[in-house]
Amino acid sequence: MLTVYSDSHRLQHGQAELIDGTLKPCFETPSRADMVLAAVRERELGDVIHPSRHGADPILRVHDAGYVRFLETAWPRWSALGRDYDALPKMWQVRRLREAVPEHVEGQLCYYSMDCGTPITAGTWQAATAASDTALTAADRLMGGERAVFALTRPPGHHAARDYCGGYCFFNNAAIAAQSLRDRGLRKVAVLDVDYHHGNGTQDIFYPRADVLFLSIHGDPRTEYPFFLGFADEKGEGEGLGYNFNFPLPAGSCVSTWFVALDCALEQIARFGAEALVVSLGVDTYQGDPISRFQLDSPDFVTLGARLAGLKLPTLFCLEGGYAVEPIGTHVVNVLAGFEARG
Ligand SMILES: NCCCNCCCCCC(O)(O)C(F)(F)F
Ligand SMILES: [Zn+2]
Questions:
Q1: Catalytic residue numbers?
Q2: Which of 24, 159, 229 to mutate to test the pocket of ligand 1 (most atoms within 8 A of CB)?
Q3: Ligand 1 atom closest to 280 (CA)
Q4: Under DSSP, is residue 216 helix (H, G, I), strand (E, B) or coil?
Q5: Which segments within the chain are labelled E, that is strand?
Q6: Is 186 left (phi over 0), alpha (psi -120 to 50) or beta?
Q7: Which protein residue's CA is at the shortest distance from atom 2 of ligand 1?
Q8: Residue 71 above 80 pLDDT?
Q9: Peptide bond preceding 30: is omega within 30 degrees of 0, i.e. cis?
Q10: What spatial distance separates the first Cα and last Cα of the chain, rounded to whole Å?
Q11: Whose CA is nearest to atom 11 of ligand 1?
Q12: How does pLDDT run across 214-233, given as a tens digit for each residue?
C-alpha cells in the first residue's frame, strides 16, 4: 500500500494543552508520526511519497474562508503582540453571547476554536496545509487507480469543522479528501471514523448532504470528548437526513461490542452504494491509550483492516489519533496490513 507523508508535520509541536483541568505537555506530538513512518518502512508496507501542493482551493471546498484566513494570519498577529509562546483561546462564544467575529486575534482565536487543547504555533499553518496536501495527494492516487492509499496525516483533522479548530485538528484532512473524490467525479463517498473520539468536524461538514455518508464509532459523548456531538439520534438534516450514523459506545466497552458496531457501519456503507471509502483511522481505541477508554488490542487492528477490505472499495486511510506512542506504528500498520492481506 502506498503511503503519502510530509516531514512538515513536525512544524506542529505545541508546548502544552489544557487537559483535565491542568496544563500538560501535548499528547499530539511529532513522535507519533515518526513511529508510524518507521513501522511503515519496517513492515515494508509499500512506497512512501511526498505530497504535491494543491493550494487553498480544495481546502476552501470544505472550510469557511474567514476561518482559513484566520489560521493563515493567526501566528504573525499573535507574535506581533510580543508573544513567542503558543496561542491558546481563553473563552468561547457560548449560549446567548453574540455570534459576531471579533476583530482582535485573541477574539478570533476564541471564535474559531472549540477547545484549548489545540495550540496555534509558528509552524501550524505550514503543518496543517501539508497534512491537507497529504490527504489530497492520496485522493489523487486513489483516483489514479490505487486500490488503497495511506495518508500519514499530522496534525489530525476529524474534529476540525467548517469554521473551527479543536481536538488537535485544524484542517479536516478526511473531509478534504472526500470532497476531492467527489469533485473528481465519484458520486457517492463514505467516510468511516474509527477513532476513539467522535468526528464532530466531519459530521458538521457533511451533515446536510446525501452524497457523502458519515459514520462514526466512538466513546459516548455523555462522558467522552467532544461531549457536545456524536449522539445516536444525529442522523443528518435536510437532504442529508439518513446519511449520518453515530455509534456511541460506553467507555470501557469490550472489543466484541466494538466490532458489532463496526459491522453495522459496514452494512450501511454497502447499502449506501459508496464508490470509495475514506477512513479516519485513529488507533486511540487501543486498551493502553492514555486518554481513551476502549479495549482493542494489537491483533484487533488486523481484524479491523480485514473487515474494511471486505467492502471491496477503493479506500483512503487518513491518520487521526493514537497516543500510546510506542505501539502506535504497529497498530496503524496492523490495520493497513490486515486490509492488504484480505486482498
Ligand atoms: N480527558 C481527555 C481529554 C481529551 N481532550 C482532547 C482529546 C482530543 C482527541 C483528538 C483525536 O484523537 O480525536 C484526534 F484524532 F483528533 F487526534
Ligand atoms: Zn481520538
A1: 159
A2: 159
A3: 15
A4: strand
A5: 2-4, 17-19, 22-24, 48-49, 148-151, 189-193, 212-219, 244-249, 276-281, 315-319
A6: beta
A7: 291
A8: yes
A9: no
A10: 11
A11: 321
A12: 999 999 999 999 999 999 99
